[in-house]
Amino acid sequence: MPANLPPQARAAERRYIEAKTLPEKIRYLQEFISSIPEHKGNEKMRRYLRRRLAELKEELEEQKKRKSGSGGGGFSVKKEGAAQVVLIGATGTGKSSILSSITNAKVEVGDYQFTTKEPVPGMLDFEDLQFQLVDTPAIFEGASYGLSWGSQLMSVIRNADGLAIVLDGSDPVGQYGMVIKELGMAGITTDRAARKIEIERTTGGGIQIACTGRIACRVEEIDKVLKEAGVRNAIVRIWGDAGKEDILGALEQTKSYKPSLIIINKVDMYPEAPQEFAKLTGREGVGVSARTGAGLGGLGREIFRMLGIIRVYTKEVGGEPAKKPIVMRQGAKVIDVAKVVHSHLYKNFKIARIWGPSAKYDAEKVGADHELADGDIVEIRIK
């Protein structure tokens, strides 16, 4: 190991080497990785340790499967609606009460700890969309190490489109710190700033790059790097400046970004909790009360905003706009809609007409790179 490791990294390395059980090895190896300074001299070691961490987690999962005798036993929730949002939080925060109040879900609500034993889905109506909300067993200290149902819970979180972090108004700061720590130790981040590069695999369209800064290499090099790694279709989002080494790091990094909404429950008892939380953390939380219903009516809009999506309505030439929207990410362009609708439209795209917020006037003629807004109507014409 490099000689320039700080004392805390050396201590974590020693605890990892001396660990006797798999959960302990995973815990201390995660601590070791997070304590290693991030610079190029340590990158090879970090990559090796990340691979080793993945191997240990797979080994732990296999152990659990053998013990259960079922070959499975994990949590699984099939995605439905426009997006799947998982409710996470410590025991007693009121996740189940919130889900029961705003969806059609039948959930057990109790005044004792760890009432929820497995994921429970429900559908939340928001205008012409539906979001699937999933109540989950409580997150706790040690969940990221694979203790109890921790591994299954983290698997559900990784599969979700977004997170709703539910906090008790009596101690939102402490609970938020615990949740973020457990997510981080499991390789999940809710901080987009921590993600310099995001690689989203797609089913077609080749390699597309969106960058807010400067790319310190030729685009062809990025295309080659991704294809050598088996990625032939993807949207690469880059925040700031980046080069080929950064792309390689993004391919190997273990952290998965999840957009999140912070919900602070029980404001009927702790009305100042959202303001105090914002003051101490710099994060905004939505105050609600599952008991009185305060604030619950606005959660659909907050989830829509948090997910960073827009609704686009297609229209055939001479016809009426479709009643059901296509859900796209913010920043989507006309050509992205063509790809979703049919490959024939994408390959033979000529021009489009736009009605809605992004149009300067009704039926404006635009090209493939026109950026769309929520509520736009798109009529695509082919060659």
Structural commentary:
- It is a single chain.
- The chain has 383 residues and is α/β, with parallel strands linked by helices.
- The protein folds into four domains: 62 residues, no CATH class; 160 residues, P-loop containing nucleotide triphosphate hydrolases (Rossmann fold); 49 residues, no CATH class; 74 residues, Beta-grasp domain (Ubiquitin-like (UB roll)).
- The chain is built from twelve helices and 16 strands.
- The strands form four sheets. A six-stranded mixed sheet has the order 2-3-1-4-10-11, with helices on both faces. Strands 13-12-16-14-15 form a five-stranded mixed sheet. Strands 6-8-7 form a three-stranded mixed sheet, covered by helices on one side.
- Helix 2 runs antiparallel to helix 3 and helix 7 runs parallel beside helix 8.
- The longest helix has 29 residues.
- It is globular.
- The N and C termini lie far apart (60 Å).
- The mean pLDDT is 84.
Brief summary:
The chain contains twelve helices and 16 strands. By secondary structure, it is of the alpha/beta class.
Keywords, separated by commas or semicolons:
383 residues, alpha/beta, Rossmann fold, 4 domains, 6-stranded mixed beta sheet, 5-stranded mixed beta sheet, 16 strands
CATH architecture of the largest domain: 3-Layer(aba) Sandwich
Fraction of residues in β-strands: 15-25%
Q: What series of H and E elements makes up the topology? A: HHHEHEEHEHEEEHEHEEHEHEEHHEEE
CATH class of the largest domain: Alpha Beta
Helical stretch tally: 12
Which fold does the CATH topology of the largest domain refer to?
A: Rossmann fold
Say which CATH homologous superfamily of the largest domain is assigned: P-loop containing nucleotide triphosphate hydrolases
Provide the residue-averaged pLDDT: 84
For the sheet with most strands, the description reads: 6 strands, mixed
Strand pairing plus helix content: what structural class? alpha/beta
